[in-house]
Amino acid sequence: MLGENDVLVLNNTKVIPARFYAKTENNKEIEILLVSPVSPDNLTWKILASPKKHLHAVETLHATSLRHATSPPHATSLLSINVIDPDTIRLNSYNDLQIILNGIGTMPLPPYIKRKSETIDVDRYQTIFAKESGAVAAPTAALHFTKELLNKIQNRGTEILYITLHVGPGTFLPIRTNDIREHKLLPERYYTDKEVWEKILQAKKNKKRIIACGTTTARTLEYIALSDKLSGLNGLYITPGFEFKIVDSLITNFHLPKTSLLVLISSFIEWKSVKKIYDEAIKEKYRFFSYGDAVFVSLQFT
Length: 302
Prior knowledge:
alpha+beta; QueA-like; Thrombin, subunit H; 2 domains; 7-stranded mixed beta sheet; 6-stranded antiparallel beta barrel; 7 helices; globular
């Protein structure tokens, strides 16, 4: 399927153990998920909290749970956390974020996985080429790749390139508006090397097929083409009628109804084709969600 006329673009973001538990001064436990950093030192974050009501009129939290952390309990001391507002916290530590989260954090599995994060998820919920730390959700279409498979693809003459988009929890938020065009995506941080982008543009000019692995990669490539910015915040929400300027083919998992992910797929190929693919997936009992199966779809390409 892949050959010398193809360029495969992958998202090399790395999932951080962004979920942890803390207690208020009156002993109320709160589950916290880091969403996006808002300070240069990476210690002040926008968050999602459950139950959020416990954060109102609270000034300080203490990280408490090391039950499922990626490092043993002795790896960190009890962490004090300042509550700036119900959506923002600051981690009080002289350590950098990675050290802190290795001690208190767990892998942020999607909400539809109804179990606690386990040790196996540290590796399983991560692509084999994950490099740039910052995501709080995995680019799941890329979980299908192994080193052996990537070697086979390269041996066929396919060029493999890497971009970065730090996937946020917004990727799982359902569409709640009656008009899908009114839905908003939470902006996510991205960056791409100038050399990589120039290779993609040259490949496009040479009529090579650009294959995006995952909706995160597709959105990043199309946003760069629209904005001409190699880094920043990407809140591009792709809906039917969108003109794809870069991506010719897409590798993607099977998605839930009423999600921006399914809307993107329906924007890439016509809805009747999407329905046919999903009818077949349901009939053959394909696996959906993050640890599920994938599909390869293409625009007409010559």
